[in-house]
Amino acid sequence: MSYIYLGNLSWVEAREVIRGLDFVILPTGSFEQHGPHLPLLTDSIRAEEISRRLAEKAGEVGLNVGLLPTLKYGVSEHHMNFPGTITIRPEIYIGFIEDIGASLARHGVRRLAIVNFHGGNNSPLQVASSIIRSRHGLRTYIIPWTRYAREYIVEYLKPHESWGHACEHETSMIMALAPDLVKRDKIARPNLAKRPEIDTFLYFNEFTDTGGLGDPLRADPEKAKIIIDKANEKIAKLMLEIARSDRW
Ligand SMILES: [Zn+2]
């Protein structure tokens, strides 16, 4: 193992290593509907396993990385009209993330990387990262994982133009990472309504009947494995550049 799972350390061990880490990684997911065929924990399953592999990859390129447990709840109000979804109010979420950053800062951690797997968390995380930096002095990097994987998703899965949730991408990922949790006989193409071209808050049931997007029938777990490797490699290299630069 080329990274440190921080939760397994004693405080004595933490004292030895924590200041020497290039990054502490916090994976963030959600607990929300992902169509009729994927589990509520879809984003968190991706967060947990893909971040673990990213930590490994970061170790291979020479970084000293500590991994935190995955935050398995997120900001998911837009999915609340589908049963089972749990949402955290944005102000609570921002405060929770701030407190994690503040605690790490007090122990001398140098950089926090939040690897995020749920779009609804992005804006609150941006706010939290500016608060952590300005109030607590800890450099915090937000890595929306899918943004770094996008070019490979497009290249390998050739997704339907509306992909992005419980679609060919996320279905491929859960087929690869937790195949027993995919309800294969429930995979169906959603009926989608056109969304307005000006930003406005919408509930997912206003534009998809299944809760999903894209075309989950195109899912392919073998392609998911390639996409994970390539995206993680790209992110690990960016982290290395940051850690080696004395500016950031
Ligand atoms: Zn998702």
Would you mind describing this structure in some detail?
This protein is α/β, with parallel strands linked by helices and 248 residues long. The chain has one domain (4-244): 3-Layer(aba) Sandwich (Rossmann fold). Helices cover 42% and strands 9% of the residues. It has 7 helices and 5 strands, in the order βαβαβαβαβααα. The protein has helices at residues 11-17, 42-60, 90-106, 122-136, 145-157, 168-177, 221-244; strands at residues 4-5, 23-28, 65-67, 111-116, 139-144. The chain has a 5-stranded parallel β-sheet with strand order 1-3-2-4-5, with helices on both faces. Helix 4 links the parallel strand 4 and strand 5 (139-144). Helix 3 runs parallel beside helix 4 and helix 5 packs antiparallel against helix 7. The chain is globular and about 55 Å long. The two termini are 27 Å apart. The relative contact order is 0.18. The model has no long low-confidence stretch (mean pLDDT 97).
Write a concise keyword list for the protein shown above.
single chain; 248 residues; alpha/beta; Rossmann fold; five-stranded parallel β-sheet; 7 helices; 9% strand; binds zinc ion
Structure summary:
42% of the residues lie in helices and 9% in strands. The chain is an alpha/beta fold and 248 residues long.
CATH superfamily: Creatininase
- Along the chain, the helix and strand elements come as EHEHEHEHEHHH
Structural class: alpha/beta
- Which range best describes the helical content: under 10%, 10-25%, 25-40%, 40-55%, 55-70% or over 70%? 40-55%
Number of structurally distinct domains: 1
The CATH architecture term is 3-Layer(aba) Sandwich
In percent terms, what proportion of residues is strand? 5-15%
Oligomer: single chain
Say which molecules are bound, naming each kind only once: zinc ion
CATH class: Alpha Beta
Q: Total strand count, please?
A: 5
| Radius of gyration based on Cα positions | 18 Å
| Number of helices, counting only DSSP H or I runs of 4 residues or more | 7
Tell me the CATH topology: Rossmann fold
Mean pLDDT equals 97
Low-confidence stretches: none
| Major sheet | 5 strands, parallel
Note the overall shape: globular
